[in-house]
Design goal:
The chain has seven helices and three strands; from the N terminus they run αααβααββαα. It is mainly alpha-helical. It has a domain of 106 residues: Arc Repressor Mutant, subunit A. Strands 1-3-2 form a three-stranded antiparallel beta sheet. The longest helix has 28 residues. The chain is globular, with a radius of gyration of 21 Å. 16% of the residues are buried.
Length: 187
């Protein structure tokens, strides 16, 4: 049984002494006791990954709200795709942003209403084409500067080599399952 830095096994730890990070080890230990034979390492890996990304993106969202007129990190992602790729059909924006069609559609309604994105239909009226406006471009530039400063803040705790290794490992993990029909992808 794992002993933590505060001393004591998972069963002996007082939940009142746990924090966001020490809870991970505690949960893995307790669940391992409840379900003998559980795959501890994958549980620890994915629980840590989820908690890290949740914490980092929450922090980035807060900083974006404090330092930018564009307050949605999700909307910023859509503008980033349009900035990097230029005008796109809705289905391409959905695919490249990694967000659901419903999310993209709802966000686009707001971005169009704010005058940040222009929505046009093509000759095929079912196809929607989206393009960032000049105003959207200016707002994106300012918001992305705030966002990128937070990206730098979080990344600076790792060396460039560690950053490259982490990116490589995450890509390997995702690409190994990319074509598996059991993986719910956003298309």
């Amino acid at each position: 049984m794992h002993n933590d830095a505060k001393g004591g096994s998972a069963r002996e730890r007082d939940p009142a002494t746990l924090d966001y990070w020490t809870f991970v080890d505690h949960a893995v230990d307790r669940i391992s006791e409840q379900f003998p034979g559980i795959a501890r390492e994958p549980m620890l890996l994915l629980m840590t990954l989820r908690r890290a990304t949740n914490l980092i993106f929450y922090d980035m969202h807060v900083k974006l709200n404090q330092g930018s007129a564009l307050t949605s990190a999700t909307a910023l992602t859509l503008l980033l795709v349009l900035s990097a790729c230029g005008p796109l059909e809705m289905r391409q924006l959905v695919r490249l942003s990694g967000q659901s069609r419903a999310t993209v559609s709802a966000l686009m309604t707001g971005l169009v209403a704010q005058g940040l994105v222009r929505r046009d239909t093509t000759a095929d009226k079912r196809v929607i084409r989206l393009e960032m406006t000049a105003r959207g471009g200016r707002l994106f530039d300012a918001a992305f500067s705030v966002f990128n400063r937070q990206e730098q803040f979080w990344a600076e705790s790792l060396t460039r080599e560690e950053q490259a290794t982490l990116v490589s490992l995450l890509r390997k993990m995702v690409m190994a399952r990319h074509d598996d029909e059991r993986v719910g992808r956003r298309n």
